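Look at one such:
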Amino acid sequence: MKTLQIGNLLASVPIVQGGMGVGISLSGLASAVANEGGIGVISSAGLGVIYNDYSKDYRKASVWGLRQEIRKAREATRGIIGVNVMVAMSNFVDMVRTAVAEKADIIFSGAGLPLNLPSFLPEGAKTKLAPIVSSARAAGLLCRKWFSEYRYVPDAIVVEGPKAGGHLGYKPDQIGDERFSLERILPEVVSQVRAFGAEHERRIPVIAGGGIYTGEDIYRILSLGADGVQMGTRFVTTDECDAAPEFKQSYLDAGEEDIEIIQSPVGMPGRAIRNSFLDRVKEGLKRPRACPFDCIKTCDVTRSPYCIMLALYNAFRGKLQNGYVFCGANAWRADRIQSVHELIASLKAEYDAFSLKERLFDSKR
């Protein structure tokens, strides 16, 4: 496999482990991926619930929790540790500033365009910034905005296709439309980003995610111009994933027909595994009386059928009767729990085997 370079950060494996909340990718998973040469990513979503023993104040507990997770990851690895911070989070600024103060290597930010992200980076900070986009238009807009407002060139750009897990940056009718597939939009994003980088004499790596499952997938996506890939679903069914065993088992039990698109209370479509909780939502689950956390800017408690924070937190703890599991389009393909080391080794072997096959094919033409 190629290496992935982001500024002075060099990942020997071009794999970014996608940030998965609530609690699915914390220090345990992130450090394991970093130890294998990839980029491990801690999700900052919902840490105020996970660390509510520290404080009942959601924002205070969130800051404390992120500090603890970054520090625990640092103790477990010398590899690259990133933090995922969603723009839609009400404590977005707190989480960004905490990640920078704790010297996270890189911040990945999506669920909205992080147009003001560079404004929170103090002079001399080493943390890299990587926005997550879903189109070439969004990539170009963000690049121009960052440079015109802050004289900042993105350190990397992540493009997520509609087969990704969790909240999706697409309209419902775009998710199954081939015109919006990762394979279709990736070359457009690469072209846009390469042109902007050339203008400013910088190479901005493009990382592609959404539906990438095998080493062959990695090879094909890199062949389309990506410098690296983002993978989330594959890392759920690992020993080191921070979720409860019941959460992981739901992937193993799922069939292809169980993967569905839902409308999240935050106002975006999402991909999840159908279960009894989601069935009850469709039947008219009782709405919450009040918002207990004020965690997402776009969530309206008067119209929400349930509290998404509590639903995802319950799932993280394995209480799936009161929550549900986000997943990528290929989650149904999971068939066993393995270590991160075993997973990375198998992806490398698949990549190498397909690469050799392609070279032999080319030599015979």
